[in-house]
Design a protein that fits this description.
- With 302 residues, this protein is mainly alpha-helical.
- Among the domains are: 88 residues, no CATH class; 37 residues, no CATH class.
- A three-stranded antiparallel β-sheet has the order 3-4-5.
- A hairpin with a 5-residue loop joins β1 and β2.
- α5 packs antiparallel against α8.
- The longest helix has 60 residues.
- It is flat, with a radius of gyration of 58 Å.
């Protein structure tokens, strides 16, 4: 009789374990990793980007990288058709709704509360006054006057310092502007002289002979020609010879001489170039002077 009871109890325990295992298996999903390992996860999970996320307990989540999962083997291990893994994982995750905020009671400040604060302030002032007399410190009004005087002096110092900075800035800016004006004028003069030199033609002081210079009929220079009158002279040809050609005598002539102007411009250009070099040196000295005086670099810029 006792054996029968034990056998019946064992059978009931086996059936209960089978049912429990079946229930757990029904709610589990097997993940097959690429290295062959198998991981049992809940049947509900989500895939976001390149991660698989499932919840082991409320508030505790576990993530697995998709590149470490063998998707085809996972589908075969769960007896699911091909492509069902991504379809199953597309289920949206359940988001626990935040509990509604509970309205907190607000306390109203009454006159009784303000009276309590007033009594505490008066007691503090009495204690301070007593301590002040013991230490022979100035009164509150005197301290306030001293603080106001210090504030006024500080404000006046800041105002004077700002005024001095503005004056210094105007001084250095004016000097820098004058220097830049002189440099710009020097550069403009150099460009003008160079342009004028490039426009002057290259010429000699004495040119070649002219092509012709008329001196009238040959009979004026050669009286013997009168002995042999020419029919051309009787016909009114004047200074033409017996062969119908004019009488010419080449004479030298002088063009305008640019040598003096070129030399003058060259000397002027040399002087301007020396002035430019001197201005650059003076500008470097000016920058060093401004640096030693504490001027800001921006004051020297245009």
């Amino acid at each position: 009789m006792i054996r029968r009871k034990r056998t019946f109890a064992g059978r009931v325990l086996v059936v209960a374990l089978a049912l429990a295992f079946g229930a757990v298996s029904a709610n589990a999903y097997t993940i097959v990793m690429r290295d062959g390992r198998r991981v049992e996860i809940p049947d509900e999970f989500t895939v976001t980007g390149s991660m698989l996320t499932y919840e082991t307990s409320p508030g505790i989540q576990v993530t697995i990288q998709l590149r470490t999962i063998n998707i085809d083997a996972t589908e075969r291990a769960n007896g699911a058709p091909r492509g069902s893994f991504l379809t199953k994982s597309s289920k949206p995750a359940q988001v626990n709704a935040a509990p509604p905020e509970q309205a907190t009671a607000r306390r109203s400040i009454t006159n009784a509360d303000l009276e309590e604060y007033r009594r505490a302030r008066l007691a503090s002032e009495k204690a301070y006054e007593k301590r002040r007399r013991e230490l022979n410190l100035p009164t509150v009004d005197v301290q306030r006057q001293e603080v106001a005087a210090v504030t006024e002096r500080t404000t006046e110092q800041l105002r004077n310092r700002r005024s001095r900075n503005e004056e210094n800035e105007a001084y250095w800016r004016e000097r820098a502007t004058n220097f830049r004006t002189d440099i710009a004028a020097n550069e403009a003069q150099i460009d003008f002289v160079r342009q004028r030199l490039s426009e002057l033609p290259v010429s000699n002081s004495l040119n070649s002979f002219t092509s012709v210079y008329p001196l009238g009929p040959v009979s004026v220079l050669n009286p013997s020609y009168r002995r042999f009158p020419s029919p051309y002279s009787r016909r009114g040809y004047g200074g033409y010879g017996p062969f119908g050609q004019p009488n010419f005598f080449p004479m030298p002539y002088r063009n305008y001489d640019y040598t003096y102007e070129r030399q003058t411009l060259t000397n002027q250009l040399n002087d301007l170039l020396m002035q430019r070099a001197a201005l650059r040196v003076r500008w470097k000295e000016f920058e060093e002077e401004a640096r030693r005086a504490g001027a800001y670099p921006g004051w020297l810029r245009p």
